[in-house]
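Sequence in, structure out. First:
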Amino acid sequence: MKNVTFSADEKVIEAARARARARQTTLNEEFRRWLEDYAGTRRSADDVMAWLDEVVKVAHTGGRKFTRDEMNER
């Protein structure tokens, strides 16, 4: 991974860091996500939905229905 240096107003950087902390992440990770979006290297929603369609074809639950709590477990 290559490092990139950028300049911005100190107050803007501090506000961005505070926002990242509130989201339990870092400014570096937020910038990385933004850069991937900007460069178009992140998967689009259509790509993800197509991938999910493929997963559904091969994933089997044996007809079992999951409860809401089971589906929301992490």
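Second:
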Amino acid sequence: MSDEAPKSAYELAMERLRKKDAESGVEARVTTDEQRHEIAEVKRVYGAKAAEAEILHKSQLLTVWEPDARAQLEQNHRRDLERIRGDEERKLRTIRDR
């Protein structure tokens, strides 16, 4: 019997995932400190953009009472948030792929 403590379900699952990745040819990459800082900055900037869009959306909703106009504002807001998230993901992917 081994002197090691029993592994948690999380540790066992992570071992299985690492083994599966190795079998399928996926290689693990280490993120540098510079990349971590860049990722944090991108998340901060795009988090602020999303918060700004949310504030503007709520202020616009306070002035509109017609259901059709409100629905249009909601649709525009969802589109803006999707664009912001998409831009953020593209920048993060670029940083991580270096």
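Remark: The helical segments are 9-24, 33-61, 67-96.
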